[in-house]
Amino acid sequence: MNTYDFIIVGAGSAGCVLANRLSAQPGKRVLLIEAGASDSNPLIHMPAGIARLANNRRLNWNYHTEPEPQLHHRRLWWPRGKTLGGSSSINAMCYVRGVPADYDAWAQACADPRWSWSQVLPWFLRGENNTRGADALHGVGGPLGVSDLRHHNVLSSALIDAACEAGFERNDDFNGTHQSGFGLYQVTQRDGRRCSAAAAYLKTVRHRVNLHVRTGALVERVLIEQGRAVGVMLRHGHRTSERIEAGEVIFAAGAINTPQLLMLSGLGPADHLREHGIDVIANLPDVGANLQDHLDICTLDGSTRKVTYDHLNELTTGLRWLMHHDGPGSSNIAEAGGFVRSRLADDARCDLQFHFVPALLDDHGRHRLDGYGYTLHACYLHPRSRGQLRLRSADPLQPIAIHANYLSDPEGNDMRRMIEAAQLSRELFDQPAFDAYRGRPVFPEQRLDGDDDYADFIRRKAETIYHPVGSCRMGSDDRSVVDSELRVRGVAGLRVVDASVMPTLPSGNTNAPTIMIAERAGALILGDA
Predict the structure, then answer these.
(1) DSSP helix/strand/coil, 97
(2) Closest CA to 199 of 42, 80, 322
(3) Pair type for strands 267-268 and 3-9
(4) For every residue of 102-120, which 3-state class applies, written as one string?
């Protein structure tokens, strides 16, 4: 019973997809391992429940970066899902694929056309069940519910109107023929409920006799014998370690946990591993390198009208959602937004993204502000800064050290784009569409004059928008961690399938691309098997 064809480490967005697709072969025994708990918390499934999930440590790895040199040495909070569904169980559900040029660049980096837009699009569509129906750019019949919001706030409409007043176009489909403009996001929901990767891909197949799911179980390392991964060492609760064997091991633990597990297993930068007394099995210098994330700056204004989500009656909101699965309880909170090409854009892609929240949101919602207001998130989509992950020790219970290195590119390109993003946020809030609601400025606390003031504001207040990728990048060069079929270099029988393999950040949110990667990988793995 301790031998499987496939062991999948991590039941997040990628792991749930793989569990579904690999166990569809009746002759293949699959074990899915999740360090966190089940997804039984009702706040996961009620979309607006995200407002109450931020401080739930049982469902969150609750990471922090090391002091960030360019952000006044602040330690930024990096929430990551620690439950079935992973971060797809605690995110804002925005379904955004990015643009064709993102994937054509991946194909070039991997020297493999199978990662180009024309060849990844079918894998996006295979996963979707989009309420807008099927066409060349939208799929139906897949496990993942993608839908329009059942409810949105009047202020979200004001944001879209303000963007039009500022000269931007209205866009009703960020996954359509073009990305630029402002509109409402489509979300990963089904009938007003969150459709996490666990709800989409795992719930319906838990009955399969060849699929085993273990929660609350921590993988300590992969077992490698004679150059091949043969299983994992697993710790469940306070029990002693347990050996579980498999024909193939797949790490789907995410951009933070996957490189940590590789290094704990002796796969990583040789000198760094030796520092912690870890025997080097394969010198892979870029494990933990190439770390990228979208840095985000929030502009907040007070509201003179009590139409925001700041002080909802939680009882009536919850009851309405339980009865009808609509109303504010079905909101993803980040309802509207848009994509813009900055003045400094390097290519034809939009390089700024916005998420609008009809509430005052400070410090990821962990700091509750008095009064009523609204928030506009803004991020630069193609940062040149690169960070790295490093072990603190050989103890698998010790969190890895995250050096995000935001705004560290030597030419200052990232900061210039962030300044433009913050300035544009203020411009949007100054449009006539907000005249009926606009109160006092909250953040920044007063009007800013020049770039230096905006730069200081960004260093003081910028946070992650939750999109870490790239720490086990795929590529065709010798330093890349995995090849274009996601096989770890130097070890047979071991793959990485999650956001860590992305060579570069896509132009938008990362959950949809992660699900696509897993759909593509499932077919590659079964083809090899």
Answers:
(1) coil
(2) 42
(3) unpaired
(4) HHHHHHHHHCCHHHCHHHH
Beta bridge partners of 336: 184, 356
Mean pLDDT along residues 75-87 = 98
CA distance 220 to 396: 6
Residues 382, 505 contacting (CB under 8 angstroms): yes
Tell me whether residue 151 is one of the annotated catalytic residues.
Answer: no
At 475, which amino acid appears? G
522 token code pair: 């499932």
Active-site residue (options: 212, 382, 403, 467): 467
What pLDDT digit, counting tens, does each position of 324-380 carry? 999 999 999 999 999 999 999 999 999 999 999 999 999 999 999 999 999 999 999
In angstroms, the CA 242 to CA 357 distance is 46
Structure tokens at 402: 């995250």
Name 83's bridge partners. Answer: 37
Q: How far apart are the first and last CA of the chain?
A: 20
Tell me if 32 sits within 8 A of 211, measured CB to CB: yes
- Whether 383 and 342 have beta carbons less than 8 Å apart is answered as no
Q: Which residues contact 503 (CB under 8 A, 6 or more apart)?
A: 105, 106, 109, 110, 290, 470, 473, 474, 475
Domains parsed from the chain with CATH numbers = 1-60+78-115+195-291+390-395+468-529 (3.50.50.60), 150-184+295-382+407-461 (3.30.410.40)
Residue 292's pLDDT is 98
Q: Taking the model in full, what pTM does it have?
A: 0.98
Mean pLDDT of 30-36: 98
466-495 CB burial, b ≥16 within 10 A, e <16: bbbbbbbbbbeeeebbbbbbbbbbebebbb
* Residues 6 or more apart in contact with residue 325 via CB below 8 angstroms: 150, 191, 192, 193
Q: How many percent of the chain have pLDDT more than 90?
A: 96
Between 509 and 235, the higher pLDDT residue: 509
